[in-house]
Amino acid sequence: MLRGGDSIINFKKIKMKTTTLLLLLWGVMLAPTASFAQTKTINTFYKEFKGLDKNVKMTIPGWLIGMGAEVAKWSVDTPEEKESLNLLKKVNKLKLLVTSENSDVKNAKISGLFSQLRDDSFEDLIMVKEEDTMVNVMIRGGNDDDTIKNLFVLVREPEEIVMLSMKTNIKMEEVNELLHLMEDDYDLDMKLD
Amino acid sequence: MKYIIILFITAFSLNVQAQSDAIEKYFQQYIDNEDFTVVYISPKMFSLISKLDLNEVDNDPEAKAVMETIKDIKGLRVLKTDVNSLVRYKEAMKTINTKEYEVLVTVRDKDQNVNIWVKEDADKISELLLLVGALDEFVMLSFVGDIDLDKISKLANNIDISGAEHLEKVGSGN
In the A/B pair of chains, how many CB contacts fall below 8 A? Predict the structure, then answer.
């Protein structure tokens, strides 16, 4: 016997199924159009750790970042902010992994990850360690050396490891354009510290 | 058999590394030590920076000098601590291979000891090493690349690390 509540639940279920289907279609449609460089090492590392309980993980596809950036552009005023958001649209994919467990096993795996990345044409950009926090930034460029194809940031703290991996299509000229815009308004402070 | 060959090659390359990079080994020692601040800026970073084309650089002679110097630098390492600084300073002084490094500047006053060495590679300076030992601070700074002393001395006041101002002295005419 159908009660009033039942019909609502069924409707929700159908709605959810359609949404999931639509999202899947989006993903499937976009996948072939992507011309990503392989980052198997990062993906493997990601898969290994995303299984653990206390992790926060997300992979944000480019189109979502693009949409977010487009929306954000409405609420910022200055040209350099708009330009930085434009740059953000050139991010094809963003992977974020935050783990709140830290062990020696992990550190060993992380150094393994680094050597694999280096084998995979990733280059160290910056390494900074202060007290108990260590930050590594690595980059992989395109063939012409003027494009940034992958950016990898790892922040290691005693209680938390944050990994950020970006696939982009940002060209150095675009970074320069952004800097020009910023220069016009602000004094560039060139300090190494 | 394959593995033995690989082992040999790795061991050999590591050894070669150690000979030319005593400083790097020294740095690696302290990476896990909480008392130390470690900074490494890679050749890739410097080449990216030099690709940045800044209008302001043309207007400001000081900024222009900084950019000029940066173009030739291949890497920067900084090691810093305020714990047991004088002990660390003495340790570090012992590790400097005087056959490879030549003293350029030595400053000693009541507050601090400063030493600057260079490593030459066929008439060109390939590394500049700065060591500062004071009561409250120990700093080790290493520039690797095609070092032009005059340019580095101009850079000295722009580096926000205490002790780096002594780099001013390496320029000619000082």
Answer: 70
Name the residue among B31, B44, B63 with its Cβ closest to that of A124.
Answer: B44
Contacts of B44 in chain A (CB under 8 A): 123-125, 139
Buried b or exposed e, range B57-88, using 16+ CB within 10 angstroms: beebeebebbbebbebbbbbbbbbbeeebeeb
In a domain, B13, yes or no: no
C-alpha to C-alpha distances, B144 to B58, B87, B127, B152, B168, nearest whole angstrom? 26, 26, 4, 12, 17
Convert the pLDDT of each residue in A167-182 to its tens digit.
888 777 777 777 776 6
pLDDT at position A137 is 92
pTM of the model: 0.69
Strand order in the sheet with B112-121: A55-61, A91-99, A161-171, A147-156, A133-141, A123-130, B36-41, B73-81, B137-147, B124-134, B112-121, B101-108
For A127, the closest of B40, B56, B160 (CB atoms) is B40
- Mark which residues 7-66 of A lie under 8 Å from B by CB: none
Number of domains chain B is built from: 1
pLDDT digits (tens, 9 = 90+) for B91-126: 888 888 888 888 888 888 888 888 988 888 887 888
In a domain, B32, yes or no: yes
In a domain, B102, yes or no: yes
